[in-house]
Amino acid sequence: MTLELELIIRLLSAGAIGGAIGYEREFRGKGAGVRTHVLVALGACLFMIISQYGFAGSDKFDAARIAAGVVGGLGFLGGGIIMKNKHVVGLTTAAGIWVTGAIGLALGSGLYELAILCAVMLMGCMEAMHFYSFKYGERQTGVVLTADKSEALENAFRELGKRVNQCSLSRQGDHYKAELSLLIKKRDYPMGIIQTIRDLPGVELESLD
Predict the structure, then answer these.
(1) Residue 200 contacts residue 156 (beta carbons within 8 Å)
(2) What is the DSSP letter of 54?
(3) Looking at residue 151, what DSSP letter applies?
(4) Which of 185, 177, 195 has the alpha carbon at shortest distance from 141?
(5) What is the DSSP string of 71-139?
(6) Do the beta carbons of residue 168 and residue 113 sit within 8 Å?
(7) Roughly what angle, to the nearest 10 degrees, separates helices 91-108 and 3-27?
(8) Which CATH architecture group holds 138-208?
(9) Quick one: 81 exposed, middle or buried, by C-beta within 10 A (0-12, 13-18, 19+)?
């Protein structure tokens, strides 16, 4: 096999594996999907190829320097995914981007078995944790309730019990308004919590985040 064919196979492998990881993220409705992961894997792979073969004749040849730069650059990309509307979200996707870059570097080095094993482990971990998180995990949800009487809201607080993480109560004209932060099981969101609030007497649901 010629060197050119070997390098083409490395790039094609990086695109295929990056696409597979990105498809899982896109299927779950995450911010970074197929295109992002393919670009990250291809870029990391190509950078690694350049670091190995582009400067081989140089007196100060160091193949690890570009790989280190790729790792740092992916950190900035992950930071952009995490910070959204001043809230910390997308940690799993950012970590997946980081590992996808590492897989691209491995493929660029010709470490096919290691890269494929890492990709399988990555997707398996994401699928397993998604199932666990959906079945047993909780999410913090903002809820705004209104009522004609403060007693109705106080009763709602008691009924919701440990689900209430934070709350604030205010009066607006003839109505009372409560802003709550609730811990809700993901499998109960949104219809389960909506039905629970509808069953509370004298209370109306104004908004649900």
Answers:
(1) yes
(2) I
(3) H
(4) 185
(5) HHHHHHHHHHHHEETTEE--HHHHHHHHHHHHHHHHHHTT-HHHHHHHHHHHHHHHHHHHHHHHHH-EE
(6) no
(7) 170
(8) 2-Layer Sandwich (3.30)
(9) buried
Domain ranges of the chain: 3-136, 138-208
Backbone angles phi, psi at 69, to 5 degrees: -65, -35
Tell me the whole-structure pTM to 2 decimals: 0.56
Angle at Cα 15 formed by Cα 9 and Cα 21, nearest 5°?
135
Which pair of tokens denotes residue 77? 């990309």
Which pLDDT band, with edges at 50, 70 and 90, does 85 fall under?
Answer: very low
Q: Which two tokens stand for residue 98?
A: 């980081």
Confidence of residue 37 (pLDDT cuts 50, 70, 90): confident
CB burial class (10 A; 0-12, 13-18, 19+) of residue 78?
buried
Alpha carbon of 87 to those of 31, 83, 84, 146: distances in Å? 14, 6, 5, 26
Q: What is the CA radius of gyration of the chain?
A: 25
Residue type, 63: A
* d(C-alpha 196, C-alpha 184), whole Å: 11
Distance CA 57, CA 118 (A): 32
Q: Which two tokens stand for residue 208?
A: 């649900």
| Angle of the 64-82 helix axis to the 34-49 helix axis, nearest 10 | 160
